[in-house]
Amino acid sequence: MENQIFALQYALDTFYFLVCGALVMWMAAGFAMLEAGLVRSKNTTEILTKNVALYAISCFMYLLCGYQIMYGGGIFLDGIGDLDISQVQSDSASNGFDGDAVYSPASDFSFR
């Protein structure tokens, strides 16, 4: 029973991270639409290109540097391959039942 509860908690926390990450992406799109509405129509393409470029550059730089700084991994997301739930379960099952969040490292990367 304890393993089933942990698996459910793991799945729900991972799903929550993915949904919140999608909402952050939609927030960036909404901000782009706000900026496009505040400029003259001849400058709309430039503003939208700027927003897409900023989002792409920030995601790429987080891929290169940010994840390594946050989690102390090696080059190019070295620690993200640990997606085996049994290993995660043995490492943090007690933390999860104490109220801590337990989620997939890949969903954590997509949220940031």
Provide structural commentary.
By secondary structure, this protein is mainly alpha-helical. It has one domain (12-111). 76% of the residues lie in helices and 0% in strands. The protein has 4 helices and no strands. The longest helix is centred in the first third of the chain and has 37 residues, at 2-38. It is elongated and about 60 Å long. It starts with a helix and ends with a helix. The model has no long low-confidence stretch (mean pLDDT 77).
How many structurally independent domains?
1
Q: Mind telling me the C-alpha Rg?
A: 18 Å
Helix content: over 70%
The whole-number mean of residue pLDDT values reads 77
Query: What's the shape?
Result: elongated
